[in-house]
Write a structure and sequence with these properties.
Layout lengths: L6 H12 L3 H26 L5 H31 L17 H29 L9 H21 L2 H7 L5 H11 L4 H9 L2 H6 L1
């Protein structure tokens, strides 16, 4: 017998669960983004006008992206606590600074590497072929950007739950978490894709 809930049921339960708690999750999200933005701004300021600023800034940006994995894992910890009825505080987003930050960074590194691989063609095209704003609608550039979006989406489908699994299975190594996450998604990828796609109207309204 199929015991899985459909998308409508999941969304309905999520709305009920979030009643009266929106401010906590919104504050946690804003705080996390604020920390990353602040660090990014500090990187821009620190590298402004220095020799090889572009390359130094690029390297530091990658480090910041890796560092953001700690906050992403912390956010997952917050959501898990809330979903399981445990005390959930905004400060939970900093939980992984003292609890297996290496795992969070390693998992995030997979996303960063995939992002870099897909970004390189676009960066090359931008610096060599785009001279006016109209060039941004070049079919080649649009295709490159579309491929980048698809790769990121697929990576999220296969690996998006890694940050949650490191809390559920703290004894697993980063590699085991990634392999287990991919294995657990077998047979459920379509359901997750359809669930994510069902939020497109909400994203457009936002």
């Amino acid at each position: 017998m199929n015991t899985f809930k459909d998308r409508a049921e999941l969304k309905s339960e999520a709305r009920q669960f979030l009643l009266g708690k929106y401010s906590k999750f919104i504050c946690a999200l804003v705080l996390s983004e604020l920390v990353i933005t602040l660090i990014g701004s500090m990187v821009d300021y620190a590298t402004h006008g220095v020799p090889y600023a572009r390359y130094i800034g690029f390297a530091l940006t990658i480090i910041v992206e890796l560092f953001s994995g700690i906050l992403i894992a912390g956010s997952a910890y917050l959501y898990l606590n809330a979903a399981t009825g445990k005390p959930a505080q905004i400060s939970d987003i900093f939980h992984c600074f003292s609890n297996y930050p290496n795992k969070a960074i390693t998992v995030q590194a997979v996303f960063v590497v995939l992002s870099l691989i897909t970004a390189v063609p676009g960066l090359i095209f931008t610096h060599t072929a785009i001279t006016t704003p109209l060039d941004l609608i070049n079919p080649v550039f649009i295709s490159i950007e579309l491929v980048s979006i698809i790769v990121a989406f697929v990576a999220d489908i296969f690996l998006g739950f890694c940050f949650y699994m490191m809390h559920d299975f703290p004894s697993l190594t980063s590699g085991q978490i990634i392999k287990t996450c991919i294995k657990l998604m077998k047979g459920y990828k379509k359901k997750l894709v359809l669930l994510k796609l069902s939020f497109i109207p909400l994203y457009l309204l936002g």
